[in-house]
């Protein structure tokens, strides 16, 4: 009986390489797509309905920046660790770099452009300016989107890791704000100024509630 061909000899190199020598040409073959590679979705962005046809692998962040030219939402780490890409979807803040655009068909998205523009600043934006809550400014859109959501979460009674008594009204304390903003990184280190800006808006809202 003839000996097996060299391609089928059990060799250490063959086993470590995943048996690529056992089937010549296997590495060059690619699987055919199982389904469509693009999807058309309808998303309401900053109050305007948008129809987009996107690659199924496109993140919400890239859809906003590349398809809608809403570049206020920043790409920082692209791994959900810095918060620069924070926006809200149906009122809840998310890291848009971690979410696929096709997941948001029918959703309402708000970006920094929908919060306010230079000629009509939102109170949170104005507070950031007043308290110098930014230096390079790259993280600022995500910081502001998160800051507004933080105060909404507190007002809605959503607890955080540092919330103590759950039977009483949650207050916008320094500890609460710091904990809830911990996912937004500022490389310039303007944290104390950011805290001051958020605290001012929280106090303004509290006064409005008492009025």
TrEMBL record:
Domain spans labelled 2Fe-2S ferredoxin-type: 39-115
Kinase recorded as keyword: no
Pfam families: Fer2, Fer2_2
One GO CC term on file: periplasmic space
One of the record's GO molecular function terms: 2 iron, 2 sulfur cluster binding
Record keywords: 2Fe-2S, Iron, Iron-sulfur, Metal-binding, Oxidoreductase
Keyword check for Hydrolase: no
Region spans: Disordered: 1-34
InterPro entries tied to this protein: 2Fe-2S-bd, 2Fe-2S-bd_dom_sf, 2Fe-2S_ferredoxin-like_sf, 2Fe-2S_ferredoxin-type, 2Fe2S_fd_BS, Aldehyde_Oxdr_Iron-Sulfur, Beta-grasp_dom_sf
Xref: PANTHER family: ALDEHYDE OXIDOREDUCTASE IRON-SULFUR-BINDING SUBUNIT PAOA, OXIDOREDUCTASE, IRON-SULPHUR BINDING SUBUNIT-RELATED-RELATED
Protein name: Xanthine dehydrogenase YagT iron-sulfur-binding subunit
Source organism of the structure: Alloyangia pacifica
